[in-house]
Amino acid sequence: MIMxxxxxxxxxxxxxxTIWVGHTxxxxxxxxxxxxxxxxxxxxxxxxxxxxxxxxxxxxxxxxLVLKYGDKPFDTVxxxxxxxxxxxxxxxxxxxxxxxxxxxxxxxxxxxxIRETAENMAAHA
Length: 125
What we know:
The chain has 125 residues and is mostly helical. The protein has four helices and no strands. It has helices at 2-28, 30-36, 41-66, 76-124. The longest helix has 49 residues, at 76-124.
């Protein structure tokens, strides 16, 4: 019976954390995307929504797949350790995905800036 409670707590906490992080990234990342897409709000909003959907799909799938792996707890201490490990892995994966997205968007921004600078130099030459 302890496994049912442990799995339920793991799923609920992991999904709440995933939804909270996704919502935060979606709402706070909009300005970054608008700037990245040179003020094109429609494009930025579309990309922001697609990133959120992909984020949820990957993380919900990961949370579901990881459920099976690891030692199964037989007591309260084991259940706490199980939850700590599983939720910790979810949090690390969420953080890694966040930094990967920021890195990719920063690269896009840098390349766009370089291209824009080259175009401006060519136009003034």
